[in-house]
Amino acid sequence: MKGTSLIAKDDIQVVDSVTDWKNAVRLASKPLLKDHTITKEYVDNMIQSVEDNGPYMVIADYFALMHARPGEGVNNLGMSLLTTKRAFDLEGKPVKIVLVLAATDNKSHLASLQKVMSVFMDDAAYQTVLNGSREEIVNLFEGLE
Amino acid sequence: MKFLAVCGFGVGSSMVLKMTLDKVVAQLGIDATVENTDIATAKATKADAYFTSAELVKDLKQSTDNPVYPIKRYMNKDEVEAAVKKYLATKED
């Protein structure tokens, strides 16, 4: 695990729109690729998983929890966040929030994921993630270790 | 009783669904344990009720006679609670 924050400032991107869901996954993964938390294999696996299993990773309105099999193409536990002001289509479901989860095994990320998800489960925070600026979103996750 | 939250890899969405199920179970005061796992393991794991996404329901139903409930919004307590209550209603018959 790099740095002190679960989702650090560099892991958070806010854009106006994306051309399609695959590019959204690639863009969302960029911070984790850049610091070698994951390899390109993991990005390809996430895209393949949606193609194989459908958009089941869309677990709330506009929210996609993107991930693939743990350990394959994953060097360290990591998470990154992309929000798009305009929704894009993920195999039939509208999405504005992409949370990339890279886990090394079945267990070691659970506490981290719980902390991050408790932010998303708060209605006010969820609205901030949807509509807020990058700065406001960064603040939501600041201090989560 | 035992509830199983199921997703493709057992590390992401099923974990979130377990969090919501845990809350619902506590709120309703049911004596139930909640576990989460991937679809392959779920097929070989006995539970009183299974909760998963619409996409995986069909696959899971082939491996169990116990009820499988599709959940659309894993973080929505009301939807998960409605599914749990549906299951509890089947136990009252």
From TrEMBL, chain A:
Main subcellular location: cytoplasm
Pfam families xrefs: PTS_EIIA_2
Keyword Cytoplasm part of the UniProt annotation: yes
Every PTS EIIA type-2 domain range: 5-144
Cellular compartment(s): Cytoplasm
Record key words, sorted: Cytoplasm, Kinase, Phosphoprotein, Phosphotransferase system, Sugar transport, Transferase, Transport
CDD domains the UniProt entry points to: PTS_IIA_fru
InterPro entries in the cross-refs: Ascorbate-PTS_EIIA_comp, PTrfase/Anion_transptr, PTS_EIIA_type-2_dom
Role according to the record: The phosphoenolpyruvate-dependent sugar phosphotransferase system (sugar PTS), a major carbohydrate active transport system, catalyzes the phosphorylation of incoming sugar substrates concomitantly with their translocation across the cell membrane. The enzyme II UlaABC PTS system is involved in ascorbate transport.
PANTHER family: ASCORBATE-SPECIFIC PTS SYSTEM EIIA COMPONENT
Stated name of the protein: Ascorbate-specific PTS system EIIA component
Native organism: Lacticaseibacillus jixianensis
UniProtKB/TrEMBL annotation, chain B:
EC number of this enzyme: 2.7.1.-
Domain PTS EIIB type-2 stretches: 1-92
Lineage: Bacteria, Bacillati, Bacillota, Bacilli, Lactobacillales
GO-annotated molecular function: transferase activity
Keyword terms of this UniProt record: Sugar transport, Transferase, Transport
InterPro entries cross-referenced by the UniProt entry: PTS_EIIB-like_sf, PTS_EIIB_2, PTS_EIIB_2/3
Protein name: PTS sugar transporter subunit IIB
Enzyme class: transferase
Organism, as annotated: Lacticaseibacillus jixianensis
